[in-house]
Structures are given as structure tokens and as C-alpha cells.
């Protein structure tokens, strides 16, 4: 494995810890074992994915960015990053990649492409660059990648690293066929990703997530028409010094005298059931009593007041700053007019968790 200029630059710029370097290099070794990087002797050695598992907000993007750089140093020509089906997220990922690889982009060694904005008629000069293609896990985006691969015959001369960011969002890829004991169908997005992998002669597939359970529990498939989704190897992304996550919020908050006790407050089941009502039930809660009833819904109102006070304090130091109060309570769409009330109050509220 070569630790060339792309990876060395990332290590220098981002001050990678030894633990993070070990994680990236182990992941790259597995990716290199997935394909034979010789154009005249192309062999698919390993179809099962690698998983990069890290805690929420622990630096997983930094880890797979380092993996991309090291893969470029070792013969990979293209990286496809699959993000959640979210316009803001794909824009964020696109901008992040342009920042991360600003120097090689400026030196015309790497290019970053949003697949839905990719220009037709890329020249041979452009195709000789290392390519980073950013795509949502959405039907039109994935179809466009397949067309891109087909049009420029990348499968014949480009080796590809596919990074499935937030892989659990499409991880439950199989649906059991009714009236059958052991037959399964691929769900739509998983089927598109499967097709994409099938169109590439040489690739390595990496899943990045903090919630791997659905991926680990995937069934085993040996048929050639379905590429495996269940990971073969897991590498742990280190959280880094000063990381604050679930243990801090949910365990340390129970310790007497620990600062975390001021951060986490549990919402009662009764209060949560009120905030997620599909229809107003005036026997349980009256809209006009929202600000006068102290006990319903107490925690949400306390959170709102903390947000207002904290926002006012921060505005004293930066008057141009803007803040949002986001509520994640329910995965179902259209959960009650409750959220319309919050929106009228000028707050950014969401029912998608």
C-alpha cells in the first residue's frame, strides 16, 4: 500500500491521530483486496462491503475522506459518494469534498461532480482526473450514475470506490416475497445500488454508519444477480479527543454533580404522546392552554424557553447569527396540527426523526 501525496496531504492538513490513520489504512487494505488493480487482469476478489462504524458526529466523514485520498494514491480512479435523499445534505457533501480536496482540484488532478449537474461531453482530459461523484440515494440520481458509467465506459478503465454514507437508510434492502418461505426481492433504492455495483468491473464498496444493526442482520445471498449488502469486515472510526456523544448525554447526565445533568432531560411518555397526536384531542390537550397550563407539555416548553434565552445571549455577541429550534419526534408525515402552531411561532419544526 502506497501512502502517496493525496493521503499525506490529508494527514498533514487534518492532523489525523494515529488511531484514525490505522482505521483508514485498514479500510484501504480491504478495498485493495476487493479488486485486482491491473487492467489486463481484472478480478473481482471480494463483493461483500466493508463497514466504517463510528459514533454519531464522531468524524466519520473525515475518516472516509482520508480513505478516498489513500485509495486515489493506490490506483483507484473514481469515488462515488451516496448520500441520504436530501438536497441540503448533497449540497453540504459536495461543498465539503471541494474544501477537502481544494489543492488537487486547483492543480486539476481531482474534480468533484454533482451527478445531477454533471455536464455532458466530458473530454478525455477531464476523465483522466480523479473523479469524485456525489449522488443522492434516489432513483433519478442513481440512474444518471449508471448512464454516466455506460456512456464513458468507465467500467472498462476506471476503478471505483463506492461510499454509502448513512448506509442504514437503505440497508434493509430485501423484502420477503409473500407466500414464499425463502425468496426475497430487493427494495427499489437497494436494487438501484445493486445495479450500479453490477455495472462496474472493478470496485470496492464501503458502508458508513453509526447504526449498523439492519446491515448486520441482512440475509446471505450467493446468487450472482444480487451483490451482497451484509458487511464482511468492520473497522471502528475513533471518536477523537473531546468527543461528546450518547454516553455523555444519557449516562453522565445521571451522575450527581456532573455538568451533563443540565443538558439531558427525559420527555415523559404522556407528554410525548401529546406532541405526536395525529388529530387534536381536546380531552387531553387544549390549544389555547398551551402557554397557561404549566404541566402540558412542560419539557417542550422548557426547551423552547432555554432556546430563546440561549439565542438572546448568543445574539449579544453576534447580531448577524441565526438559530433554529428543531423538534424530531415522529417518523410519520403530517403528525398533527401541533407543528403548524410551532411554525407560526417562527420555529423550525420537523416530524421526521
Protein model, in words:
By secondary structure, the protein is α/β, with parallel strands linked by helices. It folds into two domains: 5-236, P-loop containing nucleotide triphosphate hydrolases (Rossmann fold, 3-Layer(aba) Sandwich), CATH 3.40.50.300; 265-344, no CATH class. Helix content is 39%, strand content 13%. The strands form two sheets. It has a seven-stranded parallel sheet, sandwiched between helices. A two-stranded antiparallel sheet has the order 6-7. The longest helix is centred in the last third of the chain and has 20 residues, at 298-317. It is elongated, with a radius of gyration of 24 Å.
List the helices and strands and how they pair.
Blueprint: H1 5-14, H2 18-34, E1 50-53, H3 60-73, E2 78-83, H4 87-100, H5 102-106, E3 110-114, H6 124-127, E4 130-136, H7 139-151, H8 154-157, E5 160-165, E6 174-176, E7 184-186, H9 188-199, E8 203-209, H10 213-216, E9 233-236, H11 246-251, H12 269-275, H13 298-317, H14 338-344
Parallel strand pairs: 1-8, 1-9, 2-4, 2-5, 3-4, 5-8
Antiparallel strand pairs: 6-7
Helix pairs in contact: 1-3, 2-3, 7-9
Number of helices: 14
CATH topology category name of the largest domain: Rossmann fold
- Please report the distance between the alpha carbons of the first and last residues: 41 Å
What's the alpha carbon Rg, rounded to whole Å? 24 Å
CATH structural class of the largest domain = Alpha Beta
- CATH architectural category of the largest domain: 3-Layer(aba) Sandwich
Class from secondary-structure proportions: alpha/beta
Percent in helix: 25-40%
**Poorly predicted ranges (pLDDT <50, ≥5 residues)?**
37-44, 344-353
Total domains: 2
**What summary fits the major beta sheet?**
7 strands, parallel
Classify the beta-strand content into a percent band. 5-15%
The helix-strand sequence is: HHEHEHHEHEHHEEEHEHEHHHH
The total of beta strands comes to 9
Can you tell me the CATH superfamily of the largest domain?
P-loop containing nucleotide triphosphate hydrolases
- Shape field: elongated
Mean pLDDT: 79
The side-by-side strand order for the widest beta sheet comes to 3-4-2-5-8-1-9
Amino acid at each position: 500500500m502506497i501512502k502517496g501525496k493525496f493521503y499525506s496531504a490529508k494527514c498533514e492538513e487534518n492532523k489525523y491521530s494515529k488511531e484514525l490513520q490505522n482505521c483508514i489504512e485498514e479500510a484501504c487494505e480491504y478495498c485493495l483486496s476487493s479488486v485486482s488493480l491491473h487492467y489486463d487482469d481484472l478480478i473481482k476478489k471480494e463483493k461483500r462491503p466493508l463497514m466504517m462504524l463510528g459514533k454519531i458526529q464522531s468524524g466519520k466523514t473525515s475518516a472516509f475522506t482520508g480513505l478516498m485520498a489513500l485509495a486515489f494514491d493506490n490506483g483507484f480512479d473514481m469515488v462515488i459518494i451516496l448520500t441520504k435523499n436530501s438536497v441540503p445534505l448533497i449540497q453540504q457533501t459536495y461543498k465539503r469534498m471541494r474544501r477537502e480536496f481544494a489543492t488537487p482540484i486547483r492543480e486539476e488532478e481531482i474534480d468533484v461532480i454533482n451527478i445531477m449537474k454533471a455536464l455532458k461531453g466530458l473530454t478525455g482530459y477531464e476523465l483522466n482526473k480523479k473523479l469524485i461523484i456525489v449522488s443522492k440515494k434516489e432513483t433519478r440520481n442513481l440512474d444518471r450514475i449508471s448512464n454516466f458509467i455506460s456512456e464513458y465506459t468507465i467500467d472498462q478503465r476506471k476503478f471505483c470506490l463506492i461510499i454509502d454514507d448513512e448506509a442504514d437508510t437503505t440497508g434493509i434492502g430485501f423484502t420477503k416475497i409473500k407466500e414464499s418461505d425463502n425468496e426475497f426481492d430487493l427494495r427499489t433504492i437497494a436494487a438501484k445500488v445493486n445495479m450500479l455495483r453490477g455495472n462496474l468491473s472493478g470496485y470496492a464498496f464501503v458502508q458508513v454508519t453509526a447504526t449498523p444493526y439492519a446491515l448486520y442482520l441482512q440475509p446471505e445471498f450467493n446468487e450472482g444477480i444480487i451483490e451482497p449488502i451484509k458487511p464482511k469486515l468492520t473497522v471502528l472510526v475513533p471518536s477523537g479527543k473531546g468527543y461528546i456523544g450518547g454516553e455523555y448525554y444519557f449516562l453522565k447526565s445521571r451522575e450527581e454533580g456532573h455538568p451533563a445533568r443540565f443538558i439531558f432531560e427525559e420527555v415523559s411518555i404522556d407528554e410525548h404522546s401529546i406532541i405526536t397526536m395525529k388529530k387534536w384531542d381536546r380531552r387531553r390537550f387544549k390549544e389555547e392552554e398551551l402557554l397557561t397550563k404549566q404541566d402540558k407539555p412542560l419539557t417542550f416548553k422548557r426547551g423552547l424557553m432555554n432556546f430563546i434565552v440561549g439565542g438572546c445571549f448568543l445574539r449579544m455577541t453576534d447580531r448577524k447569527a441565526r438559530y433554529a429550534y428543531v423538534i424530531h419526534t415522529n417518523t410519520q408525515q403530517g403528525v398533527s396540527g401541533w407543528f403548524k402552531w410551532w411554525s407560526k411561532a417562527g420555529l423550525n419544526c420537523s416530524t421526521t426523526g
